[in-house]
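Hi, here's the filled form for the chain we discussed.

Project: internal
Contact: R.S.
Residues: 254
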Amino acid sequence: MSDKIRFLEETAANGHVALNVMQYDGWLLRFSNGYTSRANSVCVLYPSSKPLEEKIEYCEKCYERQGQPTIFKLTDADTELSELLTKRGYETVTPTDVMEVSIEGAGLSELGNNESVKCQYAAEPEEWLPRYFAFENVADEWKRNTFREMLSKVMIDVSYGMLYYEGEPVGCASVAVESGYALLQNVVVTSSMRGRGLGEKLCRAMIAKAGEMGAEHVFLQVVQTNQAAMNLYRKLGFRKDYAYWYMRKSIKQQ
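And the returned structure, exactly as it came back:
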């Protein structure tokens, strides 16, 4: 794994924190009550010494004890492990691109001065969360509580942004900043207001905020099949650094 991929993966993990993390011979086993694959998967970050087959079986037992499917999060650097998991019956799901832009190259001069569109920021998520859950249609209180707890464990600098259109909240996003890089995530615009360019305004506002917080670069993770988001991020100047994907095995298969 390249130093750049490892750094961005570490920063992403620090910005989207799992409730419990178990270290195992260079791998991180993450558990968060099943809420998001990122926080409930094996992250292959560091060199290891044990045979891969032995390590896979160990991980499967750990996730089985938690009543969760075994999920591996792999990057372009994990070809050997990916091939082995395929032979063991794992399926590839949710191929995702990690994209990056420099603050200088993000075209912030195009933000404009639109009185009808404003973004407000907060260092804590209490007022932001209810709108985020509503925009993302997260109604399950168990999932809400899990996400609240995950956010409470983030130890790097975070800003939660709320976009307002004519005084009404219409979108949410957040940035988590570490060592000059900002992870842009949780980007959502309420369904009734999509297609009006508000997602672009929200992202530009959050990129500008990341710059104020000391970031020189912004990166994000976007599912490869989400063409609308891909088009938006390319318009903002984001370019692909690398890809990651999940390999999943159901509890019944284990």
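Let me know if anything looks off before we file it.
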